[in-house]
Amino acid sequence: MIILNTPLNFGYKKIAKPYLFSKDPEWAHDKTLASAKTFGNILPARWLIKHTMSYSSNLLNQTVDSLNFQNPLGLAAGWDKDGQAIKLMSSLGFGFTEVGSITKHAYQGNDYPRLTRLPKSKSILVNYGLKNQGVDIIYNRLRKAKINIPLGTNVARTNSKDCADDRKSIEDYCYSIEKLKTTGDYFTINISCPNTFGGQPFHQPDRLNLLLREIETIKTNKPKYLKISPDISNRNIEEIVNLAYKHNIAGFVCGNLTKKRNLNTIYETNLPQEGGLSGAVVSELSNNLIKTIYKMTGNEKTIIGLGGIFTAEDAWQKIGLGANLLQLVTGLIYEGPGLVGLINKQLSKKLSENNYSNIEQARGFLI
Ligand SMILES: Cc1cc2nc3c(=O)[nH]c(=O)nc-3n(C[C@H](O)[C@H](O)[C@H](O)COP(=O)(O)O)c2cc1C
């Protein structure tokens, strides 16, 4: 039921957002997350939110890598890093949710400020540097929570110079994957955090080969997706795709934040070099990533498309370029939670207007 969605989202835009946007971004995020956690723990609140905000249609339903997705739109990693609010996400209308990034050791995050809003560019400058409570605590929380949509656990290596060499990094990833084997439905292996000690070494094919070879030895039937940077060359994308085939990687999350500062989509000036940019700034880069991978893999691999989804048109374009699943974070912050139901409703309309009976059929229509 979506009838009440429009006034609720109007309320977000006119009341909640001006208030939250007048506060420090991290404070606003922490308060919103705490509210989401509280509502998620109250059954009547979940029921009410579900019946006013979410949208369902058989056209949006699909099975991907043996998982059932009621709709293609998920919450991306970074909003609920420690998995505190996962119980609310299906009520908000998300088809799946991803927690993390999760690392072996807890990390309190890089120095402040770690979040800066760039409203002219519809973007956020993020420099958390993989802040999270560590896999042991997060695992204990996730294993107790029952949710009815697929749950992804996004795993990265601890942000510390003590864990930065290749051997320790690989051990770090494997520890978390081993620990999380019995909870959640898919893994995202995040090799693309832009704000960590030692950079993004696992975009290099020989190092990625070592990492994936080791991960492959961990016994799990859960699909594994690689989250990659939107800043890499087409040649590097090709190398990564080849390794994905070699090591049983089921798909790609396209993509993470950009480190670029010279894009004509950035309207704010004097940005610091530290941190990565989300939202509209990254949209074209992530679209290129999706398109390039889809041209190489067709429907053989899952592509989770994200980066600058603010409207159903943005989402539809990513499906047209080859994504079969979608995620967002920045759109949620700028447009409010009603965006999820609205995008799903409009995607369903686009599918039926174009005579597609599911997303798989529409996938890649622009290629
Ligand atoms: C506040 C914030 C924190 C993020 N933290 C993570 C993270 O911990 N791990 C990760 O893989 N991506 C992280 N991301 C990247 C998002 O998952 C996503 O790839 C990127 O923001 C592009 O999507 P968007 O334009 O919808 O935000 C973060 C993004 C934001 C805005």
TL;DR?
With 367 residues, the chain is α/β, with parallel strands linked by helices. The protein has helices spanning 5-21, 25-40, 43-53, 86-89, 135-144, 166-180, 205-216, 234-246, 280-297, 312-321, 330-335, 338-353, 359-362, and strands at residues 62-64, 67-69, 73-75, 96-102, 115-118, 123-126, 151-155, 186-190, 224-228, 251-254, 276-277, 302-305, 325-328.
Strand order of the largest sheet: 3-4-7-8-9-10-12-13
Class from helix and strand fractions: alpha/beta
What would CATH call the class?
Answer: Alpha Beta
Rounded to the nearest angstrom, the radius of gyration is: 19 Å
Major sheet summary line: 8 strands, parallel, barrel
Number of helices: 13
Number of domains: 1
Structure description:
With 367 residues, this protein is an alpha/beta fold. It has one domain: Aldolase class I (TIM Barrel). It is built from 13 helices and 13 strands. The chain has helices spanning 5-21, 25-40, 43-53, 86-89, 135-144, 166-180, 205-216, 234-246, 280-297, 312-321, 330-335, 338-353, 359-362, and strands at 62-64, 67-69, 73-75, 96-102, 115-118, 123-126, 151-155, 186-190, 224-228, 251-254, 276-277, 302-305, 325-328. The strands form three sheets. An eight-stranded parallel barrel has the order 3-4-7-8-9-10-12-13, surrounded by four helices. Helix 10 crosses helix 12. The model has no long low-confidence stretch (mean pLDDT 93). Residues 76-78, 81, 100-101, 115, 124, 126, 128, 130, 154, 190, 193, 227, 256-257, 278-279, 282, 306-309, 328-331 line the site of flavin mononucleotide (FMN).
